[in-house]
Each structure stands twice: as structure tokens, then as C-alpha cells.
Description:
mainly alpha, 0% strand
Amino acid sequence: MTTFMWVMVLAAGPIVLGCAIAYGLMTQRRLTPAEEEKRNKAIKKMYHKPR
């Protein structure tokens, strides 16, 4: 009985993890065009700053 439970845990673990990752990827919000532009300006400002 203990062996069966471990098999179930080892089989269900990756399945649950995969479902959680898939859910997170599907519900990830995309940036609006205004947010993308703001992000891009901040990146350019950060990388073109003189040292």
C-alpha cells in the first residue's frame, strides 16, 4: 500500500506542477501599447545612460 501511494505522489507531482505552469502562462496579462512604449523608453534610458 505504501508503494502505491508513493507511485501516485511521484506521478501526480509533475502533472500538478505542469498544470500550475500552464495556468500561469495562460493567465499572464499582455502589456498595452502604452505600457510597452513606457517600458521601452525606460530600457533605452537605462542602457544609454553615461557611466
